[in-house]
Amino acid sequence: MGKTLVPDIPVRARVGCTEVERRSPQLVRVDLEAWWDVRSAGAADDISEAVDYVALRDEVERVAAARPYALIEAIAEGVATALLERFPLHRVLVRVRKPSALAQFGIPWAGVEIVRERGG
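Given the sequence above, the corresponding structure tokens read:
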């Protein structure tokens, strides 16, 4: 078992508890850890045997832009579900950070982190 790491993915999402906040896309940042069996990719040295991190990034962007969200928790759940359905992953960690959430207090971001497993 190994994992692919894709940190600090910048995406635009319409997210917020109020309709006003959801009107315009805002920046959120997503960190991924995707566990999968890396042995065949490592042995073959062939991208067709690997989980392509560009495709992971693209899926994060697609989910974040798919619809308005009230909560970053919903973005995290959507990303985790999509990644487990589309890729041969055993487990994913998805962290969604919202830089604007507490900016007025000088706090760099607020976020949520979830771990989801295939079949669980």
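The radius of gyration is 15 Å. Try to locate this feature in the token string yourself.
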